[in-house]
Structures are given as structure tokens and as C-alpha cells.
Amino acid sequence: MGFKLAHFSDVHLGPLPRGTAFQDFAPKRIIGVLSWVLSRRKRHLPHIASALMTDIEDAHVDHVAFTGDLVNVAAAAEFKQGAEWLKAWANPDQLSFVPGNHDAYVPIAYDKSLGLLEAFMSNDMRNTMVALVEPFPFVRLRRNIALIGLSTAQPQTFSRVGGTVGLTQREALREKLKVLRERGFYRAVLIHHPPAPGLAHPFRALSDAAEVAGILKDEGADLVLHGHNHTETLHWLESPHGPVPVVGVPSASMTTRSHHPAAAWNCYDIDRAKGKWQTRLSIRQWQGSHFITTKDFELIKP
């Protein structure tokens, strides 16, 4: 009984709702709106993101992982629009979401922002170490697959687009990776920022990337999925429990007319044979009018 998992990231859903720049006024939001109007709206196209979701639907996957940046400047109207868009495409039981830095572009009340997406972040595994106000890290169990969702979304200064996992989440992550490994689950970690040093420019990186990578190296994981860099990447971390693949995906809405790779999503076929997990990765990329498979390979460290 195989399991098919889709992964996409960095939708940056447009268009921006009317009045976004001045509702819940924040200077950084004004800068973000100007960036959108002058540049980013020409690269992040909503019809591509919708075509990507249709392509995922046609693939009949078992579950979908969305690793953040649904919105652009974290305005309440954006989150309402984004929640409606997401719910039109996916049942919350079939899609797991973790937020990115644009989902925390400026401080905003939880009930007006991520709270609207809480159904996509429900937790199937109680955290025995701490009681969390927000749901991170969550664990969603789908058959023998465990999806572990971390939040790196922390409001940043004007000059940074990084993030932080934080001590509380890191301690819970270590516990969950250990327990789930001992119970025989396939462990897929969902995180927006690349979770190891050197995988993002310092002003774009996790502040605690070294600590998160250390936990992954100690406890192992079968798959780590991230976005943020808007490009296709594959890196490996060494663990006593086997090599850990860390896979990044391009933006889900990126046009072909950009210095970044065109929109893409990854499909993982996960199975177990002779007591070992096996993962096959297929990359589906936008060609200007439709998605095609550009790569298809076993996810095995060379």
C-alpha cells in the first residue's frame, strides 16, 4: 500500500485585495505593497497557482504539503482571500499547511491570520512536553505516514526575510522524531525555510538553522520539505538512522518569464519493502500552458 504525497510552496497569492496598503497600517506593509505593484505581481500569477492545484488533483495524491507563503504582506484581507482559495481546492484533512515569512510579514492577530487556516494545521499527536497556544509543531498521521509541521514565521526587520523555529518547537521536534521513529512511522518534516546552515543567504536564513539541523542529524527523518528559495534543491544530512533528504521546491505561482525557475510541485511515491522505506520523486513543472514531468527518480543519496 503506497502513499502519494504532493508538495508545493510560496504561492504568494494575488491580486492584493483593494486597500491592503492602508488597512492595519504598518510601514513595512507599504514597502511590500509597492514591491508587489512594481515587480512581484508580474512574476507570481494566480492562474498558474490554480493550474498547479488542478494538476495535483489530477494526480490523485493521498495528501498535500504546503510549506508557506500563501500571502504577501500579511494583511487580514489577504488571509481571508487565501483561506477561501485554499478551501476551494482542498479538504483540510487532505492538506497540511505551515506558514512562511510572508505569512508573518508584520505582526497581526492570530484570529485574523493563521487562525483562518487552523483546520489545515490540526494535530493528531499530543505534545507531552509543553502546552502550545498555536499548533506548532503539529503531527498529522495518515496511515503510516507522519507529517510534522513547524512554523518559522516570525515578523522580521526591513532588511531580513529570515525566520526562527525557537527552543520550544525544537524540543518538541526532537521528541516527536524519536517517538515516531520508534513506532515505525515514515517521518516527513514540513518547514518553510531551509533547515540547515548555508542553504539560504544569511539575511534569508533561519536564525537557528544549526540547531534544527542538529536535531535532524541526531534523530533522523525520512523526508524534509521546504520552500522559501523559489528554486529546486536537494541536500542531504547525515544521521545514524540513515541519510536525510532535504528538498526545496520552486514557487507555485512563478511565471516562465523570471530569473527564478518556473512554478513546480513535487510528487513523492512512498512505499515500504523488505523493512525499508522507499521514496520516488517526480517533479512537475510549468511550461507556459501546462505542467509536465521534468524529472523522475528514486530518492537515494548518491
How is this structure best described in words?
There is one protein chain. Helix content is 22%, strand content 24%. It is α/β, with parallel strands linked by helices and 302 residues long. The protein has one domain (3-15, 26-298): Metallo-dependent phosphatases (Purple Acid Phosphatase, chain A, domain 2), CATH 3.60.21.10. The strands form two sheets. Strands 3-2-1-10-11-12 form a six-stranded mixed sheet. The chain has a six-stranded mixed sheet with strand order 4-5-6-7-9-8. Helix 4 runs parallel beside helix 5 (209-219). The chain is globular. The protein starts with a strand and ends with a strand. The mean pLDDT is 93.
Count the helices. How many? 5
List how many beta strands DSSP finds. Answer: 12
Strand order of the largest sheet: 3-2-1-10-11-12
Distance between the termini: 26 Å
CATH fold annotation: Purple Acid Phosphatase, chain A, domain 2
Mean pLDDT: 93
Tell me roughly what share of residues is in helical segments: 10-25%
| Name given to the CATH homologous superfamily | Metallo-dependent phosphatases
Q: What is the chain-wise order of helices and strands?
A: EHHEHEEEHEHEEEEEE
Uncertain stretches: none
Task: Write down the domain tally.
Answer: 1
| CATH architecture group name | 4-Layer Sandwich
Q: How large is the radius of gyration?
A: 18 Å
Q: What is the CATH class designation?
A: Alpha Beta
Q: What form results from the Cα inertia axes?
A: globular
Work out the oligomeric state of the chains in this entry: single chain
Determine the strand fraction and express it as a percent band.
15-25%
Structural category is alpha/beta
